[in-house]
Amino acid sequence: MKILITGSCGHIGSYIVSNIHKIRGIKELILVDNLSSSQPYSLNNINKKIKNNFYLLDVSKLGSLRKFKKVDVIIHCASFTNAQSSFEQKNNMYKNNLNCMRNVINYCKKNKTKLIHISSTSIYGRNASLIREGDKAFIKPISPYARIKLIEEKMLSENNNKLNYITFRLGTIAGVSKGIRFHTAINKFCFQAALNQKIEVYRTALNQYRPYLSLKDAFKVFKFCLEKNYFKNIPINVLSGNFTVKDIIKKISKYKNNIKIRYIDVKIMNKINYMIDNSKLNSLGIKIHSNLEKEIKETLSLLK
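Above: the chain's sequence. Below: its structure in token form.
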């Protein structure tokens, strides 16, 4: 199997690359990144049994993927991902992310390449005790980033008869990778705590539930998809668990003493409280139950 990974040096992409040898049947890797917000550390120590080549490319540019032949699956990780900064960078994010998606879709259609599309549970934006994939009434993205993810899903559904794909709506990512980012909630809190800074919490968010996902669990889902050839043209919620910010801070405090909090008011702040259902994922037999405390401990250890 020949796999192309866009955004291969980013937070998720680099974790996939570092662990790709754990997925059966992969013979060749094509790694693509423009390095606009990452470094090529993930290219080190790739299993030598897997042929791999790195290309410094901007996937948002028309024809950027044209040179690649006989790719079986694209794992599309290339995008601007910071939800908070998406308010200030809205136009750039729309242009970049949607052009990337358009080029990936066109490549997959032309070459009969399957696609793993990464979406986000942030497309949900209404109060609910438990949201399932088909609960369209609860789809109300708040940030430009989340709106873009929803547009990407619509782009795929419009090409439903011309593509084989799977959309994974990921919870907020936590954990260590070679391309680690610190703008997602848990990683950001760990970063601030490690530097003895006050943890910045949105004022209304302390007791709000949100879905979180460890990198280890995310990888299990990608592994399942590739090994089982699971491309059903549907969205699937993926999360390790639903937690409040208060829960997360309590977990961090087990490994870091004297944590202080600073409450902030920001544009993205809202009173939305929801939990995500992952029964569809569980029905596939995928066991994802990684301990987020372990991810927190590893992140804090990295920052010592």
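The CA atoms of residues 146 and 255 lie 32 Å apart.
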